[in-house]
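BUG: 3D viewer hangs when loading the predicted structure for this chain

Environment: internal workstation, default settings.
Expected: structure renders.
Actual: progress bar stalls at 90%.

Input used:
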Amino acid sequence: GLGLCGWLLTIMSWIIIAFTFPVSLCTCLKVVQEYERAVIFRLGRLLHGGAKGPGIFFVLPCIESYTKVDLRTVSFDVPPQEVLTKDSVTVSVDAVVYYRVSNATVSVANVENAHHSTRLLAQTTLRNVLGTKNLSEILSEREAISSSMQETLDDATEHWGIMVERVEIKDVRLPIQLQRAMAAEAEATREAKAKVIAAEGENQAAHSLKEASDVINKSSTALQLRYLQTLNTISAEKNSTIIFPLPIELLTHFIRKSQSKPSANESRHDVGNIILK
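Structure tokens produced before the viewer hung:
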């Protein structure tokens, strides 16, 4: 496919190499690293066999040129983009993109500057993807949004010899007024939950007290033991005067005895003595 002129130039190049040997080896032998590939053009045409490397390769002087392509993973920050969400909220979002060259020949032959084009495409893709999401989805579904962006970018850059490996949403900045409104909403939600929990606690406590009162009501002895526990608790405090109810069962015997005696004053005197004791 070189034609007659191309073959003549190739032969002249080999003649120059032969006459200047071994000095010509300094300009004809090239080396690329393990993570690099060399895309060679001869008279403006790509050589058969694709990119060369890693290692040593040969370049004919005057008629061949080559371009080194780095195959390592490259990362770049997407500048903050002002995005209008689906629910009409303006947010500022930035991201980071990781990509690498998967086909060195295609990245040189199909696009003028693969790295610059990938950066511009990442910015537009970020705005387009976030424009279809609500604010709540952007805040809570970052992983899903990152995966969607990665698939969209990878499909578009496949024809450029670029493979997008990962996309991460770095930060979502909200307007100050919206931040205050969301903070007030969150505080109101927490207060409502606290009130519900307190009401449930009171309800459970009321049921427990009712069950305890039913148990005590079934036994007079349990009621008296409860009186004694209450007295013990009160006595722990430094009070000078204690007033407590006296169980009526203690007075039943004396009431019956007083009914059998003729004098009511004597019976009241006996009951008073017992109480004082």
